[in-house]
Design brief:
By secondary structure, the chain is α/β, with parallel strands linked by helices. 44% of the residues lie in helices and 13% in strands. The termini are far apart.
Length: 372
């Protein structure tokens, strides 16, 4: 068993010594038992990630200890994380691994700086923007924007979609904030399309103002796109009932993905937030296509963009109940089903009426049927 040593660092700010020590590992007694040795070998990948997290905590701790208190900030933590991650990235990056190391680095930085709400630094290669669509969300908006301000974003585009309450006054002040006011209520989809047209980041994250989501969960979508995905969807599969208990909207989403050869996506769709798009996806699809999210998703699949659902955020439980989105046959459900019909109509223009399915003659179908 590798011995764990205490590391003492003298802070340049206070002159006092501070200690960083890894968390206590699970102790395994030495012995010649084969089963015990095999168990230790199988847990090796977990141990590797654990050691990387401990190194990230130590690096963040040292980075904050070497700075004067006036220089400690999210920007400084971002710069030091980029330098450290570039030297220690082993090339086997995944969303969970990058997120774990980023959060571990923040723990060390926060411990040394004694700033608990320092925010989250991410080793992103590109710049990130976020588009927040709001409509009378003065109660939840401050918490939503507070979480977004913790992320290393280039700009925060807030689209006030026909707001008649105090949403404008509830917006937190931040130099990255860009406010867009639409006098008439045009819907969240139009707001997102408008926000994407105004964005300039390499990654664009889309959120709504009616639910506050932890910055740690939103960070996963930024990481996924930064690692090469063009569209990162919210994986709602763990929160959906079985097929018999699903509503018509969920079945439409599933059918669209299956018809386009992506049954692995299940019912995951651009109609649900949060999700993130790459600059390549926005330029390929066009911002106008984003007004109809199912159509944008269908075009992305037929045009070969990389679409995945890398992370799950439970927005089903937190979704705000409105008069138009509850009850069988409600107006929102009718709108989404109509959007899926428009999506099929659009892709059939290039893929044909049967999409990519093979058309068999009656005799060929009889042979297939009789061969069973």
């Amino acid at each position: 068993m590798r011995r764990i040593r205490k590391i003492t660092v003298k802070s340049s700010r206070t002159g006092r010594k501070a200690r960083w020590r890894p968390n206590n590992r699970r102790k395994v007694k030495k012995g010649k038992n084969r089963l015990l040795r095999s168990t230790v070998r199988r847990s090796a990948p977990i141990d590797k990630l654990w050691w990387m997290e401990q190194r990230a905590i130590k690096a963040g701790f040292i980075a904050a200890s070497d700075k004067e208190s006036s220089h400690l900030s999210l920007e400084n933590m971002q710069e030091s994380l980029n330098a450290w991650y570039g030297d220690h990235n082993s090339g086997d990056a995944s969303v969970s691994r990058v997120l774990s190391l980023s959060l571990a680095y923040r723990r060390g930085y926060a411990l040394a700086s004694r700033i608990s709400d320092i925010g989250i630094a991410l080793p992103l290669q590109g710049k990130a923007s976020v588009v927040v669509s709001i409509c009378n969300e003065e109660q939840t908006l401050p918490a939503v924007l507070s979480e977004l301000c913790k992320l290393p974003l280039k700009e925060i585009i807030v689209v006030l979609n026909g707001c008649t309450d105090g949403s404008f006054a509830a917006i937190v002040r931040d130099p990255r904030m860009i406010l867009v006011h639409i006098p008439e209520r045009l819907g969240h989809d139009v707001s997102r399309a408008l926000g994407s047209a105004l964005s300039s980041g390499d990654i664009v994250l889309f959120c709504d103002g009616d639910m506050s989501l932890p910055a740690e969960e939103l960070a996963a979508f930024l990481i996924a796109v930064d690692l090469g995905v063009d569209i990162a969807l919210n994986n709602l599969t763990p929160y959906l009932p079985t097929f018999s208990g699903q509503d018509d909207v969920t079945r439409c989403k599933t059918f669209l993905n299956q018809a386009l050869g992506r049954s692995d996506l299940g019912a995951n769709s651009l109609t649900a937030v949060p999700h993130a798009l790459s600059r390549k996806a926005i330029e390929t699809l066009g911002t106008e296509a984003l007004i109809v999210p199912p159509k944008a998703q269908a075009l992305a699949l037929v045009r070969g963009l990389k679409v995945s659902a890398p992370y799950s955020v439970n927005v089903v439980r937190n979704n705000r109940i409105r008069s138009g989105n509850t009850g069988e046959g409600n107006s929102v459900a009718g709108l989404i089903i109509g959007d899926h019909v428009e999506a099929f109509t659009e892709v059939m223009k290039s893929e044909g009426n049967r999409l990519r399915f093979v058309t068999y003659s009656r005799s060929e179908l009889a042979k297939v049927r009789n061969a069973r």
